[in-house]
Here is the input.
Amino acid sequence: MLKILVTQSIFCYIESINVDVTVILCYTSNSNNHYVTYNVTRCGGLGNMKTVQPIRSYSKIEELKTELLRNSYRDYFLFVFGLNSGLRISDILPLKVKDVKNKNFLLARETKTGKDRRIPMLPNLKVEIEKYIAGMKQEDYLFKSLRTRKPITRIQAYRILKTAAEKVGLEEIGTHTMRKTFGYHFYQQQKDGGHAPKNI
Here is the structure.
């Protein structure tokens, strides 16, 4: 088991890993000992877990960002948020402005496990959040449909990512790709001697 220091008060343990298996347990050193778990072996998005892959190439990640931004800022931000939070798509889509504004941590209750999670936000993600929510109301959903003003569905999120991925030559892409990509690059950074997850 590998122990890594994320900040002065947060430690992570990587229990097991390969390109498809990552289990990361994080806890803060305060009295409440909030636990954070990343498990990218489970498919939180649409598609078969065996065929949904992380995006290993940074250049391909940037190409996909550009393509998503060409379609809409919302779609681009969904991808960036998923890449840098490690959350399941089912936990991302219901988020509101008030859940992320001026926060150092994301407080999320996993829909799949029912567990509360306190997730440290990476500095560049905080910058992206502040730019994205400028002018939005506290109760606004981050990823709302222009037609219903409610959150887009998982199927819509899947189609958005899949369509853009095909345009830049990526296959085996689904909503769970964001979570897998987070885990893959986090591990690569630790293997290369990094001490904290970097923004993707």
Q: What stands out?
A: The longest strand covers residues 10-17. The CA atoms of residues 146 and 152 lie 9 Å apart.
